[in-house]
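Summary of Year 1 activities. Much of the first year was spent building the evaluation harness for sequence design. The harness presents a backbone, in tokenized form, and records the residue chosen at every position. We chose the following record to illustrate the format because it has been used consistently in internal testing since the harness was completed.
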């Protein structure tokens, strides 16, 4: 199944919190849902839950990175 990489703009404190939750085996539900919505906006249907990959190391603009499996035949 194809995988889309989703970049979500974030602030530093939220990015640290999401990373910490991930390291504890927990989920940041708001960013995961935002990743899912981003996939829908791109015209794809998610095939599963978004998987947190990490954060960018930007000084000003930090982004959360998620991988989302999508069905290959769903492009609008």
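For this record, the design step produced the sequence shown next.
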């Amino acid at each position: 199944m194809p995988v889309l990489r989703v970049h979500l703009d974030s602030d530093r404190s939220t990015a640290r919190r999401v990373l910490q939750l991930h390291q504890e085996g927990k989920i940041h539900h708001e960013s995961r849902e935002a990743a899912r919505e981003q996939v829908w906006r791109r015209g794809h249907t998610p095939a599963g839950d978004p998987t947190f990959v990490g954060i960018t190391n930007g000084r000003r603009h930090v982004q959360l990175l998620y991988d989302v499996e999508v069905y290959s035949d769903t492009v609008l």
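The mean pLDDT is 92. Quantitative recovery figures across the full test set are reported in Table 2.
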